[in-house]
């Protein structure tokens, strides 16, 4: 779920164009319905992207990990149609539209890569919509696997509360599911990190025979 723009660009050389911001856990970085101008790059921490429905319910759309960007929809200087919330203490860099123009002068190929990122965000949105049809167990499995793809290994530095917040599930539900998986040898939990021992059982839920838990 990582786009070429987020993996190929050496962001450290571009941070000088952005404005550094420290966000405590549960801080709103940008809010749905507010006017945006530019985009954000996550340097440290973890951020969840949610959308509020007409009924006032929040729906998880995406998890942003270090090295990824967010808020690209406001590059046209329109309102944000999502909200970004820091799951834990995070460091982000904001790049205004003017700063992005400076970056383009230094590296023109950023334009095509940025377009690919927007396309990737649409695929993420489709994934989020489809995930709502899954059981709680399948939602957590999908979320963990996607985070593994983002971190490029099978160790995910999250707590159970982080995972519950990201998935929009209760901590009790997450605890029960992870307890079953730990007893079955699917995962281990070490120093606030989930280590996935048998990713194939999470990637193909029909191989896992225990009954899915619900909220």
Please describe what this structure looks like:
This protein has helices spanning 4-8, 97-106, 110-131, 136-151, 160-167, 171-183, 199-203, and strands at residues 19-23, 28-30, 39-52, 58-64, 69-70, 83-95, 155-156, 187-190, 193-196. It has 7 helices and 9 strands, in the order H-E-E-E-E-E-E-H-H-H-E-H-H-E-E-H. The strands form 2 sheets. Strands 1, 2, 3, 4, 5 and 6 form a 6-stranded antiparallel beta sheet that branches. Strands 7-9-8 form a 3-stranded antiparallel beta sheet. The protein has 2 domains: 4-131, Jelly Rolls, CATH 2.60.120.10; 136-207, Orthogonal Bundle (Arc Repressor Mutant, subunit A). By secondary structure, the chain is of the alpha+beta class. Helices cover 37% and strands 25% of the residues. The radius of gyration is 18 Å and the shape is globular.
Report the total helices: 7
What's the helical proportion of residues? 25-40%
Under the CATH scheme, the architecture of the largest domain is Sandwich
Spell the H/E element sequence.
Answer: HEEEEEEHHHEHHEEH
Give average pLDDT, whole number. 78
CATH topology of the largest domain: Jelly Rolls
CATH homologous superfamily of the largest domain, by name? Jelly Rolls
Structural class of the secondary elements? alpha+beta
Number of strands: 9
Overall geometry comes to globular
Report, as a whole number of angstroms, the end-to-end distance.
26 Å
Strand content range: 25-35%
**CATH classification, class level of the largest domain:** Mainly Beta
Q: Can you tell me the number of structural domains? A: 2
Radius of gyration: 18 Å
Report the biggest beta sheet as strand number plus sense, adding barrel if it closes: 6 strands, antiparallel
**Contiguous uncertain segments of 5+ residues:** 1-8, 206-215
């Amino acid at each position: 779920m990582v786009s070429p723009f987020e993996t190929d660009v050496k962001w450290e050389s571009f941070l000088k164009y952005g404005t550094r911001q420290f966000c405590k856990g549960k801080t709103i970085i940008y809010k749905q319905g507010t006017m945006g101008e530019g985009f954000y790059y996550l340097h440290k921490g973890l951020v969840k992207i949610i959308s509020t429905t007409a009924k006032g319910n929040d729906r998880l759309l995406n998890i942003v990990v270090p090295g990824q960007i967010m808020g690209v929809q406001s590059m046209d200087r329109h309102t944000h149609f999502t909200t970004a919330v820091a799951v834990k203490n995070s460091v982000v860099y904001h790049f205004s539209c003017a700063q992005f123009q400076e970056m383009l002068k230094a590296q023109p190929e950023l334009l095509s890569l940025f377009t690919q990122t927007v396309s990737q965000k649409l695929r993420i949105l489709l994934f989020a919509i489809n995930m709502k049809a899954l059981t709680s167990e399948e939602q957590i499995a999908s979320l963990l696997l996607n985070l593994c793809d983002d971190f490029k290994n099978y160790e995910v530095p999250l707590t159970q509360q982080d995972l519950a917040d990201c998935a929009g599930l209760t901590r009790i539900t997450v605890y029960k599911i992870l307890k079953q998986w730990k007893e079955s040898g699917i995962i281990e939990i070490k120093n606030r990190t989930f280590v996935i021992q048998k990713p194939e059982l999470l990637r193909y839920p029909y191989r896992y025979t225990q009954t899915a838990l619900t909220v």
